Fold this sequence. Notes:
The structure is a single chain. The chain contains 27 helices and 2 strands. It has a two-stranded antiparallel ribbon. The chain is globular, with a radius of gyration of 27 Å. It is mainly α. 74% of the residues lie in helices and 1% in strands. It has a domain at 276-391. The relative contact order is 0.16.
Amino acid sequence: MAGLSFEPQSGVSNKEANAAFKKGLNKVYGWYTGGFIAFVIVLAIAEQMGLSRGAIGIVFLLATVALYAGIGIMSRTSDAAEYYVAGRRVPAVYNGMATGADWMSAASFIGMAGTLYLTGYGGLAFIMGWTGGYCLVALFLAPYLRKFGQFTIPDFLGARYEGNLARFVGILIAILVSFVYVVAQIYGVGLITTRLSGLAFEIGIFVGLGGILVCSFLGGMRAVTWTQVAQYIILIIAYLIPVVWLSVKQTGVPIPQAVYGSQLEKVSAKEKELIADPKEKEVIAIFKQRADDLGAKLKDVPAALAADRAAAQTKLDELKAANAPLAEVQAAEKALAAVPKDEAAAKAAWTAAKTAAEARARPLAGMPPHAQAYAGDPNGDEKAQKTFNESRRNFLALVFCLMVGTAALPHILMRYYTTPSVKEARQSVTWSLFFIFLLYFTAPALAVLVKYQVFNVLVGTPFDQLPAWVGAWAKVDPTLLQVADVNKDGLFQLGEMRIGGDIIVLATPEIAGLPYVISGMVAAGGLAAALSTADGLLLTIANALSHDLYYKMIDPNAPTARRVMISKVLLLVVALAAAYVASLKVADILFLVSAAFSLAAAGFFPALVLGIFWKRASKWGAVLGMLAGVSITFYYMATTQVWMRGLFGVTGPVADYTWWGILPISAGIFGVPVGFAVIIIVSLLTPAPKPEIQELVEHVRYPNLNTSRA
């Protein structure tokens, strides 16, 4: 990795120096890729010779974290340009790879295929939105921000909108967006670390956090960039191998994308069989009865609670009086302790259980048919038509929010400050799209192949012969995987499994029957995805506080060393705070990530686009527009999302707070137009920006003008 840190030599042109630098990178990462493949092969041989699964998991965890830490140590720096923008000398292809890793968060690597597995066609909104967002980045933002030539998004806002007020609002939004996003990444880190090491989830979070901090803490953007290139290589290899293997196993074809259509037809045919299966209907009827029983309890909570407590106490007393086996007595004691403490706890627990039972009292374990475009029926009754229209609106709203949010995420836009030129910033976006495409083009096939395997291999298996991965994942987190013989027939039915989307990718190697070393490699890939994004996000937060707040607003004369040190200290504080929030399991990965996209879209996109393309956009328009967009988005989430409703004490039916049936995950659909409208209206009612600001806009937009800033 020594080749990563050399500087252009005296007397050598920039073009020659950049070519030599890129050649050195090619050599380093070529050896690195070969070394990683060799490492996996050696571990596979060791597994065949008797190396335990636990040892394999620990080796993968320690080796990958040590690798990233090593890059961080070798890339350590106190130089401001190196720390904040990697010296502006990252070649387009490597910046595209680093952006791909930065982008491939836990949501993309872990959650994407899981969402497609659980929701079918509806999950394609994530692929369409996230991929389309990079088209917006290429067209409207990346080249212009690179030409502006500063360090951060608040830098642009401060310069374009005449001062620190717009900068300060930008800082607040950048911190809010990045913090929500990084909590999701650290949750993913904890999940994978727990699976690899066997540690408790809460401990696994802080162990994984060490790998995040070493890179970004020591070397800032320089360390994060070269680490992310290494992480992308691991994550893409780890993602592709199990899917290719599963494709060969099912069809004999090693190109999963090519067999996607034929396997989807088989899955759809199997879905019809399962919907008509008497055993599946039996399970559905049991869950429906459970939901009805819980509904009856909720009609008179005090009486039902007293009856439950009395029954549990009577059962315990009878067992003790009969000198029953200790295990039975302990089970009865546990059942008594599980009875809710008071009426409020009982109501909350029974309401949640009723909702869960109702969700499973439907065909296909509550999943929609995989190829069904939208829920409901446009030609059905009034309720079916309403469901169809809301489903279609939500699909389009989610695509919009993810596209616009992608184009406004501060940690992604920062990546385009690191290229040597505006031209390479444009090329970098193209490379980013290519590297992201490799994973996104594979995710739909992975979901269908796994669903085919579950439907045709798992369903009908005796419970005592279920694969080992089922029990192993149930131990990691029962909320992610839970199986129970609901109808007591000894055979596994689809309705008897509750599975979370966050484990689909991580469990794919075991579902495919691959050696455990491949499971370790996939977990290492997921860890790389979560760590790479967390690095970029934590750096964004720390830079917003140290560079934009402290240096630009509080102490403009602060020396470089102090600025970098403050950034490192703040990085540590923010990381620990995010890890603590993640340990509380406040919401699933996908909601947290999507919330960040909606907030970024509403807060930044209107101000950035109008700031570049409309000279008349004023300081007060931008400030009020950013605040209005984020506020309306946050308000909608707080009143419609289950966890946030509880946090803010919002009561009453959710339907009373929703607008046109839009789900909270797409709240940005309201914030973005509000942001645009407020900026335009207020700008027209307030004085125009100063002439020098309008000249800045001309400079940023038109390549034929003086480009000394770049």
